[in-house]
Amino acid sequence: MVPSSDAKLSTQVLSNVAEANDAAFSAVTAPDVETDGGSGAATPTSKDAVEAGVDHAGWDSEVPEDIEVGDSITFTKTMHDEDVRRFAASSGDTNPLHLDEDFAEETRFNGRIAHGILVSGTISAALARIPGDVVYLSQDLEFLAPVEIGDRVTADCTVAEDLGNNQFRLTTTVTNADGDTVIDGEAVVLILTE
To answer: Residue 60: what pLDDT?
Structure first.
């Protein structure tokens, strides 16, 4: 049977749509490895396998063996352009302040900044390194200063109070490489251990 012209046209349209989808996907996905601002450290991309409990090159964390009042858990990473673009794509927050350099240069920040919620994710990253199952019960945040693209930030979560029933109140801060606090807050988590 010879395909009709409608069938040929439908096949061509489907082919074009598939090619457009491939091109769009390529535009929003990162290369396999991105280096950490000249330091040579690789940062994971959307194509990399992210494994539970594994720090990638360019990530640093410190976790005490047993969690007690006064203990701190830290997580450090650089806020790369690709992190910001992937967060915008996955969250839908396409505010030009985060994505459009020309627009952002005309704002009070004089350039693009990372999403505050993306930066606050480093708090969650620190908590994810606590041994056991950690469940967020609450998180209060105060955004104190912007984080520019390329800034290296450290989240510090300090156990302030044992609330009983495996619940803990923590102070949570994120600082930039200059030691300035960019986010301040408090969290309550449930920590279940074996």
So the answer is: 74
